[in-house]
Design a protein that fits this description.
The chain is α/β, with parallel strands linked by helices. It folds into 4 domains: 5-205 and 239-319, TIM Barrel, CATH 3.20.20; 376-412 and 613-746, 3-Layer(aba) Sandwich (Rossmann fold); 430-602, Rossmann fold, CATH 3.40.50.10490; 754-948, Glucose-6-phosphate isomerase like protein, domain 1 (Rossmann fold), CATH 3.40.50.10490. 52% of the residues lie in helices and 13% in strands. The chain contains 38 helices and 24 strands. The strands form 4 sheets. Strands 1-8-7-6-5-4-3-2 form an 8-stranded parallel sheet. Helix 7 (118-132) links the parallel strand 3 (105-109) and strand 4. The longest helix has 35 residues, at 341-375. The structure holds 6-O-phosphono-beta-D-fructofuranose and erythose-4-phosphate.
Length: 949
């Protein structure tokens, strides 16, 4: 008889502590079952890590799984593990059947990340039990304090449990008690207790490894040679002594009345399973932890090498109940010399959880990598180049995030990832795509309705998060055949409102008014205007031309109901505006414009999966980007400069809001720089990070050489490559995660916008003054010419006068720009129509500033930027030098039902914003164009150019 089979004759079952796809598929496991009488299999995260990460055995299965549709990394891993476990269970099924369910089990461990959460452990165990769907499965549950009650619950439900990570006899006794209590629960519910099996995995070798190290220290410190030798005698003895006493507890347990009552109902005892029985110390026998622990009604799960060794030279003799007194004496001596076994075993449980979590991290990172390889260009590729110090800081932070499970905590909506304020309430965007899928049929029906109604245009009215995402969709996807063209209006500038109206055919236009709060001034006044125009155009059918997207219960919803809007779509109140593009705020306009919402969500989900809670930081593109942006900002590189292929150019406008409004507060910020053309390294200071978003078809352009030059000059470069413009969906999610991560690195709440409110208040005060007096409060310029009036607050005025500003506006510009220093940014904030001509002139102006001052330049149109970068300009660091540009609106445009016109609202917004900048002590100057706006802006550009020289 093989020595292994002889163990069985002693009442001990040998299980194999190993599993791998090829090993099972090629029949190696079946051979061990047949030849050595192996009667079970155990696995753990470390075993799967070696099997999956360390081989290409699973690559075909990964490819096949992904061919059926992308999925999360944890799902992918589990699908592999579940197949292995099922296959192993099927190999062992004859043993299970022949022994009437006494043996023939295969164990699969619950996620080590859940080891400290009873409910999550129970839920996961139930799920695995159902997924594997084999009666000879044992779900492995850790014997941690929260794990023990989970054992009782699961046993009570008839689920086989292998309780793992047991080191202390006290804990083993609690587990044995939980098993009995679980069976009693099951019996009380009328369940069949004879159908449940359990083992208690009592770890052995790890105890010697830990205790031996302490013994060696004690021995080295002992002066008395006798004491020294007494200490040394304990080396390699404690783990076995501890196990022998655990077995004694087991024997006592089965003698108890509670157990006997259960046994009478056919219950099977929870066998002690010796785990961790591969010898770690090469000085010891390689079969030490088998030879010494042989006894009836036990299991020993051995790694393959130990199995081979025992087959070769193991001694199958009953040893477990030998020398129990000596075992007790050894433990007493250990105690006497001051080594606490309790402390060691407590520590080993903690370490055990960490070790398995570390293994799971490695495993999931490897699966994430394999997934990315299989997806190829279906997943937008991101590469980060950063100089050594920053790269080191990013990998150190990634390791800290990994060790602390921070990305899992982020996904679990744990506010302590940020500032422990109300962040948990603002994380609904994490699951936007899942929500979108649930409502897919509705979006599709809406798209069909819009198409069938024959609308030629869709005009979306909204600000910030309610408009910038849709704008990216409109610009990136372009018009879709058979569907109306999507346009956005996010301005109170009269000329802009008029130009937008002129661009659409009102009679066949569908208006989407988007506002989460429903109380934002701009969408409300824009709606008032267009609803009135619709009434004039289509009469009573005006309501059927309007769709509202708003959070439930908003004032806009009430208006929509009152005016009989065509549809009302509800937003999700746990999603802030700037994180809302994958929610109805993006999907409704997408559907109306004929964008394939299902394909859009599929694309977004590729990145949702890549950035999931299960993907460790080093393999998680969103976390990598966020850590880079956050750490670079902390090191002074706080200007995130967005570059993009022409087809993707509008994405920067959306990122601007996301990043600026999220990070720009408490004197900190990542300042987004969008639309600044790429230049040679000499144009930039050392405060930049470049993000380059390219279509693969544009990848080899001269642009690449220019980017390389920046990289060589030491600027951090993030390269993101899209195979197709439709893959922009992925970028929304990547940047949302990255922004949330960067917020955590900066130590701010990335979901509030405290300083936007400040300027809204000032604006309200001004419009109230207008309502009362019929005009805005008078202002006195600090300087005037025929073309311009110059305004600023007393503090700025004093500082600028001290620098030579006099009666000539040019002197103010000169003084103002002479305040710009390295590391600053200049923001040109124009409350004008965002016409191509004005954009062009402001671009000329910003390039002059960059060329002369070597600083980052931002261009914003008011009031649009107020809902975007405005937060950072007011709440971020005092590094902004602001030139506000206003003009008189000729002709102005009345707002139906209000005394204030569009021009007045916009003027109040500009002044309100300036007031807050001034209050915050920001370097700010306002130039008011008195002439024709376009010509006046051009002469301002010339004046700025002169002022810079
Ligand atoms: O969708 P709402 O409520 O109209 O808000 C529009 C925008 O205004 C802000 O609340 C503040 O600027 C943004 O965060 C938001 O995206
Ligand atoms: O169930 C088995 C255990 O997970 C395994 O035996 C642990 O062994 P180790 O201490 O060698 O990792």
């Amino acid at each position: 008889m093989s020595s292994l089979k002889a163990l069985h004759a002693q009442g001990q079952a040998v299980w194999l502590d190993f599993v791998a796809r090829g090993f099972v598929e090629k029949g190696d496991l079946a051979r061990l079952v047949a030849e050595d009488g192996i009667r079970g299999v155990t696995s753990n995260p470390a075993i799967f890590e070696k099997a999956i990460a360390g081989s290409d055995e699973y690559d075909d299965a990964i490819r096949a799984a992904l061919a059926q549709g992308d999925r999360s990394v944890i799902d992918l891993y589990e699908s592999l593990a579940v197949v292995d476990i099922r296959k192993a269970a099927d190999v062992l099924r004859p043993v299970f059947d022949e022994t009437g369910g006494a043996d023939g089990f295969v164990s699969l461990e619950v996620s080590p990340y859940l080891a400290l959460d009873t409910e999550a452990t129970v839920a996961e165990a139930r799920r695995l039990w159902a997924d594997v769907d084999r009666p000879n499965l044992m779900v492995k549950v850790p014997g941690t304090a929260p794990g023990v009650p989970a054992v009782r619950t699961l046993i009570g439900e008839g689920i086989n449990v292998n309780v793992t990570l047991l080191f202390a006899r006290r804990v083993y006794e609690e587990v044995a008690e939980a098993y009995i209590a679980g069976l009693e629960d099951l019996a009380a519910r009328g369940g069949d207790v004879s159908k449940v099996a359990s083992v208690a995995s009592f770890f052995v070798s790890r105890i010697d490894t830990a205790v031996d190290a302490l013994l060696a220290e004690k021995a080295a410190a002992a002066n008395d040679p006798e004491e020294k030798s007494r200490i040394e005698e304990l080396l390699g003895e404690i783990a076995i002594a501890n196990a022998k006493l655990a077995y004694r507890s087991y024997k006592l347990m089965i003698e108890g009345d509670r157990w006997k009552a259960l046994a009478a109902k056919g219950a099977r005892p929870q066998r002690l399973l010796w785990a961790s029985t591969g010898t770690k110390n090469k000085a010891y026998s390689d079969v030490l932890y088998v030879d010494e622990l042989i006894g009836p009604d036990t299991v020993n799960t051995v790694p393959p090498a130990t199995l081979d060794a025992f087959r070769d030279h193991g001694t199958p003799a009953a040893t477990l109940e030998r020398s129990v007194d000596e075992a007790e004496a050894a433990l007493a001596t250990l105690d006497r010399i001051g080594i606490s076994l309790d402390a060691v075993t407590d520590q080993l449980v903690t370490e055990g959880v960490t070790l398995f979590a570390d293994a799971a991290d490695k495993l999931l990172a490897a699966v994430a990598l394999k997934r990315a390889t299989v997806l190829g260009d279906r997943m937008n590729r991101q590469t980060i180049a950063a100089e050594a110090d920053l790269a080191k800081a990013v990998s150190a932070a990634a390791e800290t995030w990994r060790a602390n499970g921070t990305i899992r905590r982020l996904w679990a909506k744990d506010a302590s990832v940020w500032t422990n304020a109300d962040e948990a309430k603002w994380l609904g965007w994490l699951t936007s795509t899942a929500d979108g899928r649930q409502k897919l049929a509705d979006y599709q029906a809406f798209a069909a309705d819009v198409k069938a109604a024959g609308f030629t245009d869709v005009l979306l009215l909204g600000m910030g998060g309610s408009s910038l995402g849709p704008e990216v969709l409109a610009e990136t996807f372009g018009p879709q055949p058979g569907f109306p063209k999507l346009r956005i209006l996010d301005s109170t500038d009269p000329a802009q409102v008029r130009a937008t109206e002129a661009a659409v055919t009102l009679a066949t236009t569908l208006i989407i008014v988007s506002s989460k709060s429903g109380s934002t001034t701009e969408p409300n006044v824009m709606l008032a205007y267009f609803f009135d125009r619709l009434k004039q155009t289509v009469g009573d059918r005006a309501g059927s031309h309007v769709v509202a997207v708003t959070d439930p219960g908003s004032s806009l919803e009430k208006v929509a109901q009152r005016d009989g809007f065509r549809r009302i779509f509800h937003g999700e109140p746990t999603i802030g505006g700037r994180y809302s593009v994958l929610s109805p705020f993006g999907l409704v306009p997408a559907a109306a414009a004929g964008i394939d919402v299902a394909a859009f969500l599929d694309s977004a989900d590729v990145m949702v999966h890549a950035c999931g809670p299960d993907v460790p930081p080093a393999a998680n593109p969103g976390v990598q980007l966020g850590l880079l942006l956050g750490l670079a900002a902390r090191a002074g590189r706080d200007k995130m400069t967005m570059l993009a292929s022409p087809a993707l150019a509008d994405f920067g406008a959306w990122t601007e809001q996301l990043v600026a409004e999220s990070t720009g507060k408490n004197g900190k910020a990542i300042i987004p720089v969008d639309g600044e053309p790429l230049a040679s390294p000499s144009h930039y200071g050392s405060d930049r990070v470049f993000v380059d978003l390219r279509l693969v078809s544009d990848a080899a352009s001269p642009h690449d050489a220019e980017i390389r030059a920046l990289e060589q000059a030491g600027h951090p470069i993030v390269r993101i490559v899209l195979r197709d413009r439709a893959e922009i969906a992925q970028e929304f999610f990547r940047f949302e995660i990255a922004t949330a991560v960067a917020g955590a690195v900066l130590g701010i709440n990335p979901f509030d916008q405290p300083d936007v409110e400040a300027s809204k208040i000032k604006t309200r005060e001004l419009t109230a003054a207008f309502e009362a007096a019929g005009r805005l409060p008078a202002e006195t310029p600090v300087a005037s010419s025929g073309s311009f009036d110059v305004f600023t607050d007393p503090k700025n005025a004093e500082a600028l006068r001290a620098m030579g500003a006099d009666a000539d506006p040019a002197s103010w510009l000169k003084a103002h720009f002479s305040r710009v220093k390295p590391g600053d940014y200049v923001a040109l904030l124009a409350y004008l129509c965002r016409s191509p001509a004005h954009v062009g002139t402001l671009q000329t102006m910003r390039l002059a500033v960059r060329a002369r001052r070597k600083v980052a330049t931002c261009v914003g149109f008011g009031p649009r930027f107020l809902h975007s970068t405005g937060q950072a300009y007011k709440g971020g660091p005092d590094t902004g030098v602001v030139l506000q540009i206003t003009a008189d609106d000729h002709p102005d445009l009345p707002i139906p039902g209000q005394s204030a016109s569009f021009g007045i609202v916009k003027a109040a917004q500009a002044r309100g914003d300036f007031g807050v900048l001034a209050e915050r002590g920001r370097r700010a100057l306002r130039i008011h164009i008195k002439t024709d706006v376009t010509a006046g802006l051009a002469s301002l550009a010339a004046a700025v150019d002169k002022a810079l020289s």
